[in-house]
Amino acid sequence: MIKVLLVDDDVELASMLREYIEQEGFAADAVHDGEAGVAGALSGQYAIVVLDVMMPRLDGIETTRALRGVGNDVPILVLTARDAVGDRVEGLDAGADDYLTKPFA
After folding, report:
1. 3-class DSSP state of 65
2. What are the tens digits of pLDDT across the range 54-87?
């Protein structure tokens, strides 16, 4: 089964996303800060990481850079309220595979 790692400090949103992902037939786990996101992604258990930008400990950009810096190539989807073009460029330049802004449909 494909496993998704959700990294978002908004516990309620992460829970809703996890439920939706599981309804679509995937497994999902949620963690709530960037350091836990790095540890989870480095575990090799996940096929994709979906992460927020604004989080404690390491933000989403730092989390992405940390993973790419050690050669981890798990696909990363940034899911964030930061919607300025510069924010999108920064996320993609850090190594994210895609960047989606909240709210989303």
Report:
1. helix
2. 998 899 999 999 999 999 999 999 999 998 999 9
Place of tokens 């996101």: 37
Q: Cβ distance 98 to 60 under 8 Å?
A: no
Q: How many CB atoms lie within 10 A of CB 56?
A: 11
Per-residue pLDDT tens digits for 13-22: 999 999 999 9
Q: For residue 63, what is the enclosing H or E element?
A: helix 60-69
List the Cα angle 15/21/22 in 5-degree steps: 90
pTM as predicted:
0.93
Query: Of 6, 14, 78, whose CA–CA distance to 45 is shortest?
Result: 6
- CA angle (78, 83, 88) in 5-degree steps: 55
Residue type (1 letter), 18: R
